[in-house]
Amino acid sequence: MAFFVQLLVDYSGLIYIVLIIGGAFYLREIFSARQELQQSLYSLEREAANSRLWRGIVMLVLLGLIAVAIFGLKTVVAPGLATDAARVTPTPPFILNTTTPTPTFQPTPTRTPRPPTLAPGTPTPTIEGAPTATPSPTPPPAPSASCPDPNVQIVAPIAGQTFSGAIQIRGTADAPNFAFYKFTLSGPATNNVTQTAGDVVRAPVRDGVLGAIDTTNLVTAPGAYVLGLVVVDNTGNELPHCTVPIVIQP
């Protein structure tokens, strides 16, 4: 219904031109029928002229009603449909993140005395039972975010950030011929299958609040997740996705 109304509104100018041409044609038909009605001498000719006259009047009234209907759709119905669409898909609320990261304290280094210098040829003394120091493995670097399209960007949260409640998302979701955007999640709770999280949003956002996702139902399956942002244009094409790795913990 909304698509049909929008189509009529988009082509209203062309429809008005067609209606004006049709109205001019039927006005000419009405004037011609009136002249024939006044000049005809036989009843059969009068009936034919009268029929043409009323047919022209009816068609002229019908064209006028169509013009009024198009005007009403353009000025009343179409703005109302746009308002209803905005009410159906409100922008998700933004909740401030109150999680304060715990500072990491570095231990104070202990001064180790330098061993005495041995003379050349003197064997190095060893202590029986002394444990051999094993170097600790270097943790692998956290995966980075992937947002190749400047119109599809997530600036918060950042890659590797840990959550146990709501996720507040900021960034940009905009494109030419924009239709809507949505969030996706994949991880242990989804068997690593990408699924839509929340409702779609039909209002573009640039450098602002995109929305929020509640992850309280994911704490039973903690682990590494991938948060995604998908922007779709009005032809159904998806722009390159923006993905950010995050961590869900109890």
Walkthrough of the structure:
The chain has 250 residues and is an alpha+beta fold. Helices cover 33% and strands 24% of the residues. It contains three helices and eight strands; from the N terminus they run αααββββββββ. The strands form two sheets. A five-stranded mixed beta sheet has the order 2-8-7-4-5, with no helix packed on it. A three-stranded antiparallel beta sheet has the order 1-3-6, with no helix packed on it. It is rod-shaped, with a radius of gyration of 37 Å.
Number of helices: 3
The helical percent reads: 25-40%
Q: Spell out the helices and strands N to C.
A: HHHEEEEEEEE
Which geometry do the CA atoms define? rod-shaped
Percent in strands: 15-25%
Query: What class do helices, strands and sheet pairing give?
Result: alpha+beta
Number of strands: 8
Q: In total, how many domains does the architecture comprise?
A: 2
User: How large, in whole angstroms, is the Cα Rg?
Assistant: 37 Å
In CATH, the architecture of the largest domain is Sandwich
CATH superfamily of the largest domain: Immunoglobulins
Assembly category: single chain
Terminal CA distance: 46 Å
What is the strand and helix layout of this fold?
Elements: H1 2-10, H2 12-39, H3 43-88, E1 152-156, E2 162-163, E3 166-173, E4 178-186, E5 195-201, E6 205-214, E7 223-233, E8 242-248
Parallel strand pairs: 2-8
Antiparallel strand pairs: 1-3, 3-6, 4-5, 4-7, 7-8
Helix pairs in contact: 1-3, 2-3
